[in-house]
Each structure stands twice: as structure tokens, then as C-alpha cells.
Design a protein that fits this description.
The chain has 326 residues and is of the alpha+beta class. It is 22% helix and 32% strand. The protein has three helices and 17 strands. This is DUF7918 domain-containing protein.
Length: 326
């Protein structure tokens, strides 16, 4: 497969495959694009996985923004050619919604669960063939010329394999295809095309699997992992909200404490101011030499003197005065 390979990834869902100027989408029953997983795109080739559900109708939409030539688009389901479409420059986009079974009737296209058997002889056992049974393939070729056909191309065979898959070889989540309801749709005729061999065909391959199959291929997280991730995300959001609330409460408490501290500081300054004022009123000035208010001033001088023993007493008993007569 020519071209340099590139891997597409990113948080945004991928719903469109691109190769050269062509794009491809798988549409669900409501006509909405289905999400692709494991996308790989090259110059003339693009491949991806899609989540399929048993019994769901689908269609394939192809587009080219600025067509200037005629192209033939060929649709294969499970390795079987289902329908081809010759696109004129003014007919893009084109959509494969059904396959023709008569000049007036078509059948819609549907996903189907894989059919298995325990017959190990009359069954499909080749892993490559089993993988191909769940594959949508679209090939786009450049048209050189066309011829008008006499009868429309009819597909009377049943969509799906002629044999069932050997049950021990079936992969979990495998998907196949089947025809859906039949409805009226007149044929517009049949065209025979001659393609340009020099043009390298563009190929889109889309492998279909159930959600469980995609989980086993690690293209999407398992349900418990997804639930755990959602719970973790929810818990993280709740934790962030709680932390924010705690921060607001702490900030409010800090502001209140700061206000109380300022009030205490203010009262302390007032007390210190009053204390300094009272100390100045009650303490005399050491440099003030004015007499007291009563006009008297006493100055007592204290000196050490020897004890007089002439009146009696001894050194051992200074207060023993035995003789008190004249």
C-alpha cells in the first residue's frame, strides 16, 4: 500500500475517513455518522474500526469536494460484492443504502451477529476469512469511458457467508452482515464502465465489531474502567468544589482573626497609653527641689556609734543593767 502511514488520534471523535481527496462515513439508522476507532490513513488507503449492533441498518456515504472526473465506487460486505455506483462530477456525495434484487426492488443493509457451528469440517476456520466477514470495503476507481447496459445488475444471493464460522475460531464481538427489509425502488438503468488502469484505486476498509469486541481490542475502555474514570472525574470535581469551599471558609476565618487581632492591638495600645499617663501623674520629678505641701522637711542621717557600757551591761550581755541607782 503506497504512501506514508500516519496514525490519527486525539480527544475529538473521528467520524470521517480520508484518503487523497475522498472521504468515507458509516451512517447509522438515523443517518448520523458513526464514530471510528483505531484509524490508520495512507495515501490511497484508510482503515478503521466501528462499533456495530446486531439488527441495526446502516449506509456508507462517500464524498469528494471538487470532482472533475467520473469514478466508480464498489461496495463489498464480508468479502462479497454488494453494489457498484458510477459517480458523475455533479452527483457527489453518493450513498450506499441498499442492494438491488430486481428492477423495482432493493434490500437495506444491516449488521448481524456472527453465525457459528460446532461442525469442525463444514465450517469457516481460516482467521483471515473470519476477519473479512465483518469488514466493509469500498474501492474507488477512475473511469475512462462508459457503455449503456441492457439490464440492471441484480444480486439474488443472500448477504453473508455460505458457511457458518467454527465456534471455537469465532472471536468475541464478531459482526457479519445481512439484508434488511425489502422496499420498492425503480432502477435507473445499468452502466458498464471502463476504468483507468494507471489510476491507483483508493480503498476504505472498515472492520465492524460489537462494543465488547472493541474493548478486547483496546480501542475503547471497558465498562468498569469507563465507569471508574467517570466516578474519578466526578470525585475530582467534587473534591475541587470542596477544596474551593474550604479555601473560602479559611479565608473568611483568616479575615475575622485579622480583624480581632487589630481590635486587640488597638485595646492594648490604649491600655499602655493610659498606664504611661498614670505613671507620670504619681511619680515625683527627681529634679524638683520644692518642699512638701506641709512646709516641713526632715533629713535623717544614719551613722554607726559605739555602745556605752558605763551604765551597765557587758559585751556578751549588753542589756543586763543590774545597777540602776544614782
Amino acid at each position: 500500500m503506497p504512501g506514508e502511514s500516519s496514525s490519527s488520534s486525539g480527544p475529538a471523535p473521528i467520524e470521517t475517513l480520508r484518503s487523497l481527496a475522498f472521504t468515507a462515513q458509516v451512517l447509522n439508522n438515523a443517518g448520523n455518522p458513526m464514530r471510528f476507532y483505531g484509524v490508520r490513513e495512507e495515501a490511497n488507503f484508510a482503515q478503521a474500526f466501528v462499533e456495530a449492533t446486531d439488527g441495526e441498518q446502516f449506509s456508507i456515504k462517500l464524498d469528494m469536494p471538487d470532482p472533475s472526473n467520473k469514478y466508480e465506487a464498489i461496495l463489498q460486505l464480508g468479502g462479497q460484492r454488494v453494489r457498484s455506483y458510477m459517480a458523475e462530477p455533479d452527483t457527489w456525495p453518493i450513498t450506499f443504502k441498499d442492494r438491488r434484487i430486481s428492477k423495482t426492488e432493493v434490500q437495506s443493509l444491516m449488521f448481524s451477529k456472527a453465525v457459528t457451528t460446532d461442525d469442525d469440517k463444514d465450517s469457516i476456520r481460516d482467521p483471515a476469512e473470519i476477519t473479512r466477514l465483518g469488514e466493509i470495503a469500498v474501492t474507488i476507481k477512475k473511469v475512462l469511458s462508459t457503455l449503456e447496459g441492457k439490464t440492471p445488475c441484480l444480486e439474488s444471493w443472500q448477504i453473508g457467508p455460505q458457511k457458518a464460522i467454527y465456534e471455537k475460531e469465532k472471536k468475541v464481538g464478531a459482526i457479519q452482515f445481512r439484508a434488511g427489509p425489502t422496499f420498492n425502488k425503480p432502477s435507473l438503468g445499468h452502466t458498464i464502465v471502463i476504468c483507468d488502469d494507471k489510476f491507483v484505486p483508493v480503498e476504505f476498509k472498515i472492520r465492524c465489531a460489537t462494543r465488547v469486541g472493541l474493548q478486547l481490542l483496546h480501542h475503547i475502555p471497558k465498562d468498569d474502567e469507563s465507569s471508574s474514570a467517570k466516578k474519578k472525574k466526578k470525585r475530582s470535581r467534587e473534591e475541587e468544589e470542596e477544596l474551593a469551599a474550604q479555601g473560602e471558609r479559611l479565608q473568611k476565618r483568616l479575615e475575622e482573626d485579622q480583624k480581632r487581632l487589630e481590635e486587640v492591638q488597638k485595646r492594648l495600645e490604649e491600655v499602655q497609653k493610659r498606664r504611661r499617663g498614670g505613671s507620670e501623674e504619681g511619680s515625683p520629678d527627681p529634679h524638683d527641689s520644692s518642699p512638701p505641701a506641709d512646709g516641713m522637711s526632715l533629713n535623717v542621717k544614719k551613722e554607726r556609734m559605739k555602745f556605752d557600757f558605763s551604765a551597765g551591761g557587758t559585751t556578751a550581755e549588753p542589756f543586763d543593767l543590774t545597777d540602776l541607782s544614782d
